[in-house]
Amino acid sequence: MATVIHKNPKTLFDPTPFAFAHSTIGEGDGKYVFISGQSGGEGLEHHLSKDFRTQVRYSLKNLETVLAEYQLGVEDVLKLTILIVDHDEENLKIWSEEVHKVWKNNEFPASTLIPVPKLALDGMMIEVDAIAFMKKSK
């Protein structure tokens, strides 16, 4: 890789105190965008709802915000990793319903869902990271 660029959208909370960037990109034959785990935190205050569905919606909205920094959309996502606290079948149903609303064409990226006992902050129920690809023409 010749160049690595880090981006933190101004409309999301500042992650630098926590030693990560919202996204990085490495340039090669194409450009791969590595997006850090996006929680279901709302706004600059990173408010975490106690409702799982609300956190799922905001984790996907936050992912879309980072993608937009590169003029990308969900169709450019190659891989998702989903971490869910106290995962069960109901959470999977909610996750699937909300993902269908975002990937309207039903062309989903590869994904891995990992049940976990806890995430970085108290109250976080979900975290979604992604790898996207930016074609040279973009």
UniProtKB/TrEMBL annotation:
GO terms for cellular component: cytosol. GO terms for molecular function: deaminase activity. It comes from the Bacteria. Coiled coil: none annotated. It holds the Pfam family Ribonuc_L-PSP. Gene3D superfamilies: RutC-like (3.30.1330.40). InterPro entries: RutC-like_sf (IPR035959), YjgF/YER057c/UK114 (IPR006175). Belongs to the RutC family. This is Endoribonuclease L-PSP. It comes from Chryseobacterium soli. The lineage of its organism: Bacteria, Pseudomonadati, Bacteroidota, Flavobacteriia, Flavobacteriales.
